[in-house]
Amino acid sequence: KLTSLALQPVITPELVQGRVHLKCTYNHPSSKPPLQYVVVWSRLSTPGRKEQIQRDTTLELFSYIEMNGVNLRLGDTVFCTVTAFTRDSPEQQSLPEESKGFYAGIKFLPESLQIAEDGKEHVLTILSTVPIACPGHDDSCKITLQLSIEDLDSQLLGPPNIALSACQVDLLQAPCSGSSCAAATLTVTAVTDFAQDGNRISRIRAVPVGWRDLLWRAYIPKDVKVTVRDLPTGNCYSFTDPHIITFDGWRYDNYKIGTFLLCQSMSRAFEVHVRQWDCGSHRSATACNCGVAAQ
């Protein structure tokens, strides 16, 4: 057998004639006689199990495979394994060397989020590890992802527990760099709901829309899990003619007519105004809440 040749195969994505391909490249040991290479492409079919999808014998220091949406789809983790042998004596083979797994598809960074009901914005990056093709003259080179939120605690009805800065994002074609061929960012914020509803889990889903290409049409990226940590909330009250109880439990009355600033935060853009109109009689002047506005 040939000794280990340090072929170090690496998978990179590439557009070939407008179609998405993966390219396996490897090193050539300079001191050796002319070599041939057997390149075996495989995908992770189930955790821990690989399925062979293509086998090439080549003199070149690279091998291509097309992501056609049939035997190789978005969402697959792909490997290439390279074995070298001399042309004169094919039985003299090197030890097979396997690339790192290449995940082909949409990735979220971070893959999961743990946030609190504190109003802070958290940046979520959505990237494609494969290049975006241009299917026709009338289409711009982009993938549009429609975003939606699912609350996993189905017993709790009501609004979502998180808010996104966008309902959809566009992944525009760009040169591949590192593990990203196209990227977009948005922010995720926990909804401050003033309810003591415990820690809740939501999922963000991204679905490609309006795409005719088989590769993208049948693909739904993996969801992002978002855990929202409940924070204790304060309460203040203004009721009947109006009696007021402040956050710290202090009580007073305000019988006047007019518009008043009921509450204003000193640390963030949050305030509540109340409007009080006359609801008393000739004997007792009093006012009632008739309107409220909150920012």
From TrEMBL:
| Residue ranges crossing the lipid bilayer per the database entry | none
Q: Which PANTHER family match?
A: EGF-LIKE-DOMAIN, MULTIPLE 7, 8, VON WILLEBRAND FACTOR D AND EGF DOMAIN-CONTAINING PROTEIN
The answer to keyword Signal applying to this record is: yes
**Keyword Ion transport among record annotations:** no
Q: Which organism is it from?
A: Eurystomus gularis
Looking at the UniProt record for this protein, which Gene Ontology cellular component terms does it annotate, in alphabetical order?
cell surface; extracellular region
Protein name (database record): VWDE protein
* Pfam families in UniProt: Ig_VWDE (PF25776)
What PROSITE patterns does the database record attribute to this sequence?
VWFD (PS51233)
MF terms from GO for this chain are:
signaling receptor binding
Can you give the residue ranges of the VWFD domain?
A: 234-295
Q: Which InterPro entries match?
A: Dev_Signal_Modulators (IPR050969), Ig_VWDE (IPR057885), VWF_type-D (IPR001846)
Keywords from the UniProt entry:
Disulfide bond, Signal
